[in-house]
Design brief:
It is a single chain. The chain is built from nine helices and no strands. The protein is mainly α and 206 residues long. The chain has a domain of 58 residues. α1 packs antiparallel against α2. The longest helix is centred in the first third of the chain and has 31 residues. It starts with a helix and ends with a helix. This is RiboL-PSP-HEPN domain-containing protein. It comes from Mesotoga infera.
Length: 206
């Protein structure tokens, strides 16, 4: 799969996440929701998790593609320090002696990019420029996947920083659909972070 195809597949996955959330909030003619509150919460959380997985899958596919000599959408080939003979060998190089590679950690992605490509290009400087947002996304991912006092505390800390005021006991669902104060376009938290991922993926692919 070319880098262009990889990016297009990522966009399709991301748009499907948007569609899931939209469908979960469809209303009847009387204005009532077609889905119950618990259904809306679960569908929205699942859509967010799908978006996070799509981002991780994109990073893996892009890393492997560039490691095996593929060029970007514009025909640029990064300077490689590694030359795996095939995609599976590239994947094993990324994993190394570990059981898996943590694509959710921007510091790990930056480190591996710097090891395999000159100046980490094309993953750098784009990963570093959104590192804070990627850590935010991981906090939200943990809240969706692991409901514990620790993840809830981390989520509430994120909410205070992002929204500007504390909201004890907030659910991820509520956060994702809240309008972000810093957004000039009145984006929801979900839309704001989605745009960041799509923009970064596009820059990495080009």
């Amino acid at each position: 799969m070319s880098l262009k195809d990889t990016f297009v597949a990522f966009e399709i996955d991301i748009n499907q996440c948007d569609n899931l959330i939209s469908h979960a909030h469809l209303t009847a003619s009387d204005g009532s929701f077609l889905f119950s509150e618990i259904d809306r919460k679960q569908i929205t959380a699942a859509a967010f998790l799908n978006m996070f997985v799509a981002w991780e899958s994109f990073l893996e596919a892009a890393l492997i593609a560039y490691m095996t000599g593929e060029t970007s959408e514009t025909g640029v080939s990064p300077i490689r320090y590694v030359f795996p003979p095939d995609k599976e060998s590239a994947r094993l190089m990324i994993v190394g002696a570990n059981r898996y590679f943590d694509y959710s950690n921007p510091d790990s992605v930056k480190k591996i990019a710097l090891l395999f490509f000159k100046n980490g290009v094309p993953f750098e400087p784009h990963i570093s420029s959104i590192a804070s947002e990627l850590h935010d996304l991981k906090t939200m991912r943990n809240s969706a996947a692991h409901i514990t006092s620790t993840t809830q505390k981390a989520l509430e800390s994120l909410v205070t920083r992002v929204l500007g005021n504390p909201k004890p006991g907030i659910h991820l669902y509520e956060l994702l659909l809240t309008t972000l104060p810093i957004s000039s376009l009145n984006d929801t938290v979900f839309s704001f972070y989605k745009t960041i991922l799509v923009t970064a993926a596009k820059l990495i692919s080009e």
